[in-house]
Design a protein that fits this description.
There is one protein chain. With 418 residues, the protein is of the alpha/beta class. The protein has 2 domains: 157 residues, Lyase, Ornithine Decarboxylase, Chain A, domain 1 (Beta Barrel), CATH 2.40.37.10; 247 residues, TIM Barrel (Alpha-Beta Barrel), CATH 3.20.20. It is 28% helix and 25% strand. The chain is built from 12 helices and 21 strands. Strands 4, 14, 15, 16, 17, 18, 19, 20 and 21 form a 9-stranded mixed beta sheet that branches. Helix 2 runs parallel beside helix 9, helix 5 crosses helix 6 and helix 8 packs parallel to helix 9. The N and C termini lie far apart (56 Å). The protein binds ligand LLP.
Length: 418
């Protein structure tokens, strides 16, 4: 459920008309609903109620906007970060260092050191090489870094190939067969406090089955490690729960997910952590855009909107579907090719899509754009970065300014020899 709905024929975000936002801020613009973020944060937490009070770290990569992080921090969420930049954002949003988990295959020495400086709660280690490096850095500083070993369980998440992370040939985690020996080696390193395991097999999962398969493998490994005398007190089960992108689509709910986790982990006796991203932020945002013009096509017309693949990359990158709807639908429908202004054919949001009838100047939204939307934007075609707005009841604020082509150009210099 989200808080983007028609009121007197005009789409609103909570109590604010999207027409008002378009007039005040311009288009394209990302619009987030605080009530939806809060609702999703609570529904996810409630779904895990049977597990006691597990640690929940929002995957910052899904939506790193500071205001979004602050909303979640106020809901008691921690952060899953994958770069120094994301760590800085989580700290700026007042997330407690102890509630921050640092994931990612390519943490640099500077990033590992930043994590140690900050006293983050856990490093999720992705290789023996990384673990030895972290141990060496921590030991010279007289520290022991709290960490978990990320396991690659070789499970097909059944999602898009580009966002699948748990197959043996993906770059993530330690191959399961290597885990017992490596765990024993790393547990003995002076700079590490190896407390457990981590796993994340992919994103936008539409079935719980691959997660269950992967968690069962973690359970077997956990018992094997304990039988060998190792300590395993923490397990991080990652994120990955999918969200509906099409009206009417039904995906496993947080409650069903929580029930499955409770069943599988019943006798694990560990502190569990989770790293949800999309399920919290996805349906809490829309990309508001204006139709520039409608161009005659050989078959269907081209609806040329002022948002483009640089603003919302998912359709171009993964062939993803985002529902598209008029802000002031008149009741008539049309079939159109929905495209942006960028000079490549990849800048296509949908071909032959049935949608509300629109004409030049009309406003429309791409729905479910709150996760992996603004954060994946680029300035391709020198289009600048889209602003972000957070709505809260009947008020709204611009929480990220539009970065126009001139601001981006301001960071460039001409060398004096040119
Ligand atoms: N934890 C780790 C270690 C991850 O790599 C990810 C996502 C998450 C948690 C959060 O997963 P979620 O709950 O959001 O599924 N750009 C792609 C998605 C990439 C996801 C990468 N990792 C997209 O637009 O679909």
């Amino acid at each position: 459920m989200d808080h983007f709905s028609l009121r007197d024929g005009v789409m609103h975000a909570e109590d604010v008309s999207l027409v008002t936002i378009a007039e005040k801020v311009g288009t394209p613009v990302y619009v987030y609903s605080r009530a939806t973020l809060v609702r999703h944060a609570r529904v996810f937490r409630d779904g895990l109620a049977a597990l006691g009070s597990p640690h929940i770290a929002f995957a910052v990569k899904a939506n790193p906007n500071l205001a979004v992080l602050k909303v979640l921090q106020r809901e008691g969420y921690g952060a899953d970060v994958v770069s120094g930049g994301e760590l800085a954002r989580a700290l700026k949003a007042d997330m407690a260092p102890a509630d921050i988990v640092f994931s990612g295959v390519g943490k640099t020495q500077a990033e590992l050191t930043f994590g140690l400086d900050t006293g983050i709660g856990q490093f999720n280690l992705e290789s023996g090489e990384e673990a030895r490096e972290l141990s060496a850095i921590a030991a010279t500083r007289g520290q022991r870094a709290p960490c978990a070993l990320r396991i690659n369980p070789d499970v097909d998440a059944g999602t898009h190939d580009k966002i699948s992370t748990g197959k043996a040939d993906n770059k993530f985690g330690i191959p399961l067969p290597d885990a017992p020996a490596l765990y024993a080696e790393l547990a003995a390193l002076p700079g590490l406090d190896l407390r457990g395991l981590a796993i994340h097999i992919g994103s936008q999962l539409s079935s719980l089955d691959p997660l269950e398969t992967a968690f069962l493998k973690i359970g077997t490994l956990l018992k094997r490690l304990r039988a060998a005398g190792q300590t395993v007190s923490h397990v991080d089960l990652g994120g990955g729960l999918g969200v509906p992108y099409k009206a009417g689509e039904v995906l496993p709910s947080p409650a069903e997910y929580g029930a499955m986790v409770a069943r599988i982990t019943r006798d694990w006796d560990v502190r569990l952590s989770f790293e949800p991203g999309r399920v919290i932020a996805g349906n809490a945002g829309v990309l508001l855009t204006r139709v520039i013009r409608v161009k005659r096509g050989l078959n269907d017309p081209f609806l040329i909107v002022d948002a483009a693949m640089n603003d919302l990359a998912r359709p171009a990158l993964y062939g993803s579907w985002h529902d598209f709807a008029a802000v002031e639908p008149a009741g008539e429908r049309m079939t159109a090719n929905i495209v942006g202004p960028i000079c490549e054919t990849g800048d296509t949001f949908a071909m032959g899509r049935e949608c509300d009838r629109l004409q030049a100047g009309d406003l429309a939204v791409f729905r479910t754009a709150g996760a992996y939307g603004a954060t994946m934007a680029s300035s391709y075609n020198s289009r600048g970065f889209v602003p972000e707005v957070l709505v809260d009841g009947d008020r709204f604020a611009v929480v990220a300014d539009r970065l126009d082509a001139a601001s981006i150009m301001a960071a460039e210099t001409l060398p004096d020899w040119l």
